[in-house]
């Protein structure tokens, strides 16, 4: 406790904002404090820690290795503070805020199917973001997201401990326009040689699996489109007239209304869905339910 009393969290907050901005001028304008006063605060923190936190490169401030470590802790400290204020504000309004991030390659239909129970809850406000997995995980570790949905597991990293829960798996389907392919079946990949095909892009976990199957069987389809975004791949499957390889959940509506037909599946191509959470997180009842955990016990 005595050590904590010696650490000035006001100085740490100033360091956090300067580190995020990378520039004293912008940080001082944001904090409404003079550059000289802000610089003095950072200097006092460095003296207290016994380590330099920044080096200068021209007019920019660049974090040292120790500065990077201190920033990681500051992100957690102030990220948790922001989360606490958000939760308290939500509780005072009688609502729960659920902040969901999802990788851009993940099916929008799958996401909606997963969080649909939350849509029916009038006391839940959803915030939905999409992006690259690395960026989303960083926001998760900074307590700016509650959960990240992904179609690949995250590797074990002691410096960034995360919980990765498998939500489910499904076979990938080959679909085509019903007017041309109704009643037909195709083997994957053997029957795809020379056929026009739209595929998930190289960032998608499925693509490497499919390319390996084609190479092993010496099958060479005509690749007409490579698409990372599943919503766009759905539109191409619906409108292009080409065959498309994708998780069937992406085109569940088109298959249901007869616009597209499923021509084949293979157990060798599977998409896996994961929910990734930070170990030190606020427990939210609706999120626990979506993750399949037992209901939270009331306090007291």
Structure in a nutshell:
This protein has twelve helices and ten strands. The protein has 300 residues and is α/β, with parallel strands linked by helices.
Mean pLDDT: 84
Rg estimate, integer Å = 25 Å
* Individual helix count: 12
Name the poorly predicted regions: 295-300
How much strand content do the residues show? 25-35%
- With strands numbered from the N-terminus, the spatial order across the biggest sheet is 4-3-5-10-6-9-7-8
Helix content percent band: 40-55%
Q: How far apart are the first and last residues' alpha carbons, in Å?
A: 29 Å
Annotation, overall tally of beta strands: 10
SSE string, helices as H and strands as E: HHHHEEHEHEHEEHEHEHEHEH
| Morphology | elongated
Biggest sheet overview: 8 strands, mixed
The helix/strand class is alpha/beta
List keywords for this structure.
alpha/beta; 26% strand; 300 residues; two-stranded antiparallel ribbon; 8-stranded mixed β-sheet; disordered C terminus; elongated; single chain
